[in-house]
Design brief:
The protein contains 8 helices and 5 strands; from the N terminus they run αβαβααβαβααβα. With about 180 residues, the chain is α/β, with parallel strands linked by helices. The radius of gyration is 16 Å and the shape is globular.
């Protein structure tokens, strides 16, 4: 796994609001890699926002597009990829990332922090419901074990994005240095 973390793509996974995009941008800069936000990649390919894709094609239609985007981005070298909140919940996506030598890092943020970060969110289709706090809690409880199962490494994401990005970079660079010493 050490070689995977240092050499292949880094895929950040975790619950909505855990910081995949903001941490990913910063970590990519620190590691001198390109950044790819999977949702933005899908939006560019489709010419529609994620919300529009959900509205037109439903969640399953979005997940099909997401699986294609995973296959495409997994094969591109030198990326830090911010996956969507549901991306690694599908085993075929996890396999596709790993098949191309990618390492999945779970950004583990505590539920209260996620509740606070998401309280006014207007973008995420799954949260546009009357009882948002309950939905967040239920989804978090369902998804957290799946994120842990998919991840090669868990990173504490309860801190500000700059701190979490440094944690990611420190882990990757530390492993890269260990590999070079062998």
């Amino acid at each position: 796994m050490k070689k995977q973390l240092g050499k292949g793509n880094l895929i950040l996974c975790g619950f909505m609001g855990c910081g995949k995009t903001s941490v990913g941008r910063r970590a990519a800069r620190l590691l001198n890699r390109e950044f790819c936000d999977l949702d933005q990649y899908i939006e560019q390919k489709e010419g529609l926002t994620v919300s529009e894709i959900f509205a037109r094609f439903g969640e399953e239609g979005f997940r099909q597009r997401e699986a294609r985007a995973v296959e495409e981005t997994a094969g591109l070298p030198g990326l830090v990829i911010a996956s969507g909140g549901g991306t690694v919940l599908r085993e075929e996506n996890v396999r596709a990332f790993h098949r191309q030598g990618g390492a999945i890092l779970f950004l583990d943020a505590p539920l209260p922090a996620l509740q606070e970060r998401l309280k006014n969110d207007k973008r995420r289709p799954l949260l546009q419901v009357p009882d948002r706090r309950r939905v967040i809690e239920e989804l978090f409880r369902q998804r957290a074990p799946l994120y842990r199962a998919a991840a090669d490494l868990t990173i504490d994401a309860g801190a500000p994005p700059v701190t979490v990005a440094r944690r990611v970079a420190d882990v990757v660079l530390g492993l890269d240095i260990q590999d070079k010493m062998r």
